[in-house]
Amino acid sequence: MNSTTTPAPAAPAARPLVVGPDQPLSPYPIFVSGTVVPGFGRGSKQLGIPTANLPEDAVNQALTDIAIGVYYGWAQVDSGPVLPMVMSLGWNPYFKNTKRSGEVHIIHEFAEDFYGKTLRIAIAGFIRQEQNYDSLDALIDDINIDKKVAQKSLERSGYVKIKSSRFFYR
């Protein structure tokens, strides 16, 4: 290497694709439901990762005792199928939010929005802390890894059991 060559930046450390213990431990699972409300309009438009947003009262009442960050679990819209989800709970520092939000990305392709419908989630575990990003692309890359982590982590039998909880089948 000569004096005019700049070394390439180091690649980010690979993240594990399975997180948490083999069985959910307290306080998990955490069950939350609410009516899907319009959010900031970024999920689909800016990120290409649509989210179902929990109402502020559900976030404030049910999710005050857990850390800000990214979680994995199961979600259901109305009486539809129970599907894997990843949820951001926090301030979204890249977007400089002024209030805490709960944004759920259900890992499934939906044909339409479901504002006003009932969203039930079972938070099964913690993926990572919330963080800021240098670019929108870096944020999108991390969310896509979060989705893989959620899917792989939910494959374990202790987490699959949550999917058949009475919470989803009332």
Q: Secondary-structure blueprint of this entry?
A:
Layout: E1 30-35, H1 43-47, E2 52-53, H2 56-62, E3 69-77, E4 83-90, E5 101-106, E6 118-129, H3 136-154, H4 157-160
Antiparallel strand pairs: 1-6, 2-5, 3-4, 3-6, 4-5
Enzyme class: transferase
Organism: Coemansia aciculifera
Protein name: Riboflavin kinase
Describe the overall structure:
This protein has 170 residues and is α+β, with helices and mostly antiparallel strands. It is 21% helix and 25% strand. The protein has four helices and six strands, in the order βαβαββββαα. Strands 1-6-3-4-5-2 form a six-stranded antiparallel β-sheet, sandwiched between helices. The radius of gyration is 17 Å and the shape is globular. The N and C termini lie far apart (66 Å). The model is unreliable at 1-11 (pLDDT under 50). This is Riboflavin kinase. Keywords: Kinase, Transferase.
Sum up the structure in keywords.
6 strands; EC 2.7.1.26; Elongation Factor Tu (Ef-tu), domain 3; 25% strand; disordered N terminus; alpha+beta; transferase; kinase; 170 residues; Riboflavin kinase
**Number of structural units classed as domains:** 1
Determine the N-to-C terminus distance. Answer: 66 Å
pLDDT < 50 runs, ≥5 residues: 1-11
CATH superfamily: Riboflavin kinase-like
Helix and strand content put the structural class at alpha+beta
Strand content: 25-35%
Instruction: Please give the number of β-strands.
Output: 6
Number of helices: 4
Helix fraction, binned, reads 10-25%
Largest sheet: 6 strands, antiparallel
Measured on Cα atoms, how large is the radius of gyration? 17 Å
